[in-house]
Design brief:
By secondary structure, the chain is an alpha+beta fold. It contains nine helices and seven strands; from the N terminus they run H-H-H-H-E-H-E-E-H-E-E-H-H-E-E-H. It is elongated and about 110 Å long.
Length: 336
């Protein structure tokens, strides 16, 4: 069965198809040159009216062009099919991961409720159960919000509400909210820097980005989370760095992690679940803000640094940011 799967692999099909076409081209050239040689030998005995060298050359050139065009077309079709197959595999993994992410908190909530229904639980224990159920419900809500946000981004219907913020206050506020929401111990996060400048941003969208990066640093930590958030202003951008001491990212995977549905398996974190949407979503949100996100890691088990860049208002990308503010104001006026 495995042998049949090998023969049905797109690369195997492509190679066989290319060999078939090349064989056909070879046979065609052989046929043409054979006839040409025959004509050269007996051409003098044939009436000049039925021999046309110009026509033969034109036929040869047109034939070669058509064959090359067919080969190029097959190559493009192969590339397209290969991408679709890869996307389908990633989509299947996404469905599997999302199903797990949805079922786990639901099963947990159901178990707590059934336990509270069947047994008489002490008040202190009940409160603990309620806190755990709230945490599971928030986990579900975050997952659903991420999927809805992705859908709106891809359908270009995402309604951002950009405002002018003092960058320093906004960054501190977003960090504090993430730490509180994800229940990260305060002594696990070191915040450094200052950003005495302004930015045009949708604070709710940036909150999603901060949550994703802090949550990832926590999930992929080798032990107790140690996260440093450093931020500062350059001449044009506000730079925010999330520096963790976790499992790190190989150079090969650093090029992949911002792709949709992409998840990186690591033997030290086999139980970490996810949808493969977080960093893709973060990249898209930053892109809509006129900024960008990048990652640097010296390799596995050497931690990672995620760097965000947002344009300073109004020094950088002034026309782009003014347009974002104008669209937000129009949308807000329509809603009112």
């Amino acid at each position: 069965m495995k042998n049949w799967k090998f023969y049905l692999h797109p690369m195997a099909i492509f190679i066989v198809a290319q060999l078939a076409w090349l064989s056909l081209v070879g046979m065609w050239i052989y046929w043409y040159t054979s006839n040409y040689i025959i004509f050269e030998k007996v051409g003098s005995k044939i009436s000049p009216q039925i021999i046309s060298r110009t026509a033969n050359i034109i036929v040869l050139v047109i034939g070669l062009i058509l064959l090359v065009a067919i080969l190029a077309g097959m190559y493009l079709i192969f590339i397209y099919l290969n991408r679709q197959i890869s996307l389908t595999k990633l989509y299947d993994n996404f469905i599997s991961n999302v199903t797990h992410e949805l079922k786990s908190p639901l099963a947990s909530i159901q178990l707590y409720l059934e336990t509270m229904k069947i047994r008489k639980i002490p008040a202190e224990k009940q409160q603990e159960f309620i806190d755990l159920m709230i945490a599971d419900a928030e986990r579900l809500q975050n997952l659903i919000n991420s999927i809805l946000k992705l859908s709106s981004l891809e359908s270009r219907k995402s309604a951002y509400f950009y405002q002018i913020f003092d960058a320093d206050s906004l960054i501190k506020s977003l960090i504090a909210e993430s730490i509180e929401q994800l229940k990260i111990p305060l002594n696990s996060v070191l915040v450094k820097g200052a950003a005495p400048c302004k930015c045009a941003a949708d604070s709710d969208a940036l909150k999603i980005v901060f949550n994703i990066l802090v949550d990832n640093a926590n999930k992929y930590s080798r032990g107790k989370l140690q996260l440093t958030i450093n931020y500062f202003c350059t001449s044009k951008n506000i730079v925010i760095e999330f520096i963790d001491e976790g499992i790190g990212i190989s150079h090969e995977n650093q090029k992949k992690i911002f792709k949709k549905f992409q998840r990186i398996y690591h033997p030290n974190t086999p139980n970490v679940k996810g949808t493969g949407l977080g960093l893709y979503l973060a990249r898209e949100i930053l892109r809509h803000h006129g900024g960008k996100i990048s990652v640097f890691s010296e390799g596995e088990n050497k931690g990672a640094t995620f760097q965000l860049q947002l344009p300073i208002f109004p020094k950088s990308k002034k026309r782009y940011l003014q347009n974002l503010l104008k669209i937000s104001k129009t949308n807000n006026d329509l809603e009112i």
